[in-house]
Write a structure and sequence with these properties.
Length: 270
């Protein structure tokens, strides 16, 4: 096996990041949607929950797992609603962001090169097929995680700030939130990349890549929305296990994609 050419990988990644910064069609949705989901919506919901702190949610909490309801019931009644909303129920927003951003960037990985008519020069670079695939993958994965982690910092600051008059303390993130941020979110982003990079290599335009990939990515987004709140309701070890399963599936897709990736196939679609 030939050694990894880190210099070539970094060069391709730098070129991709430069192209991303110049593309409004990529940058705007990549920043606007996370800002909407991670800042504006939590602010609005947290503000509403703060001013409805007198609402009795004891019966609702009684229907939740004991590990979730007990800490909330131990808090003063005024703190329960805002803790439940911003501490637990808004969790689906976080996993949507890395999945969506990675899908947008991966769709541009090869299809964008075809649109910009730079793919031919890319294929002539002195870099192996494996390293080219890895460079394209990391060129989408690292920005997706940067947007996600900065978005979560904004989410935590917004949630804690809007609830400070009620909570008088920092309540986000919790321990299980930490599992989602560090372990599950990167796995979800890699899962989306494992699908979209292969789709982008076959598509002729970014729009076509988004359309083809949407058939797979949209169900993953709905799954993330449906399961991420439940992830915060489970035991710490179970959350880690769930993340491991997602990582295993994501890496399987990536390895298969790397093995099937060939310059000749891309060249035929020019």
């Amino acid at each position: 096996m030939t050694p990894v050419d880190r210099v070539a990988i970094r060069a391709v990644m730098a070129k991709d990041l430069k192209a991303i910064r110049r593309s409004k069609a990529v940058v705007l949705p990549m920043l606007f949607v996370p800002a909407l989901l991670m800042v504006l919506f939590p602010f609005a919901v947290g503000l509403a929950a703060r001013f409805r702190a007198d609402v009795d949610i004891s019966q609702f909490l009684a229907s939740l797992p004991d590990a979730v309801s007990r800490p909330l019931l131990e808090r003063p009644p005024a703190e329960r609603l805002v803790t439940l909303v911003n501490g637990y129920l808004l969790a689906p927003l976080f996993l949507v962001v890395p999945l969506m951003v990675s899908a947008v960037l991966a769709a541009d990985a090869f299809a964008g090169e075809k649109e910009r008519r730079t793919l031919e020069s890319l294929l002539h670079l002195p870099i192996s097929d494996r390293d080219l695939f890895v460079a394209k993958l990391l060129g989408a994965f690292l920005p997706a995680m940067a947007v996600s982690w900065f978005g979560f910092v904004a989410f935590a600051v917004t949630s804690n700030a809007v609830a400070w008059p009620v909570m008088h303390r920092i309540f986000v993130p919790t321990r299980l939130w930490g599992v989602m941020i560090v372990w599950v979110a990167p796995a979800v982003a890699m899962l989306g990349l494992g699908v979209m990079v292969r789709v982008s290599a076959r598509a002729r335009t970014t729009q076509e890549a988004n359309q083809l990939g949407g058939a797979v990515i949209l169900p993953l987004i709905f799954l993330a929305v449906g399961q991420s709140t439940g992830l915060l309701f489970v035991d710490f070890a179970v959350a880690v296990l769930i993340g491991a399963v997602i990582w295993a599936l994501a890496l399987w897709l990536v390895v298969r994609g790397a093995r099937r990736f060939q310059r000749d196939t891309l060249a035929t679609n020019l």
